[in-house]
Design brief:
The chain is of the alpha+beta class. The protein is built from three helices and four strands, in the order E-H-E-E-H-E-H. It has a single domain (2-79), classed as 2-Layer Sandwich (Histidine-containing Protein, Chain: A).
Length: 88
């Protein structure tokens, strides 16, 4: 999943950290690393982006719940927060 123009990095990191499985990002040398709670990767990414947010990032997730969580994050960035559907 490729994400663009992430301005609310704090909320984005909270969303990523809440994921159940690995959230993989591929580094420039071709290695895949888990982006959850990875301060070093986050600092490198923010330094590379010149507008204070994240201009583009490509993530891979394996859990459907994590994919939904990231889609809700992006939809919420445009339309406001979306509530997670609760099941009884």
């Amino acid at each position: 999943m490729k994400l663009f123009n992430i301005q609310d990095t704090k909320r984005f990191y909270e969303t990523v950290d809440a994921c159940e499985g690995p959230v993989l990002v591929t580094s420039s040398d071709g290695r895949s690393e888990d982006f959850r709670n990875n301060t070093l990767l986050r600092e490198v990414l923010e330094t590379a982006s010149c507008n204070g947010g994240i201009s583009t990032i490509e993530l891979r997730v394996s859990h459907p719940t994590d994919m939904r969580r990231l889609i809700n994050f992006m939809a919420g960035s445009y339309f406001g927060p979306l509530a997670e559907k609760k099941t009884a």
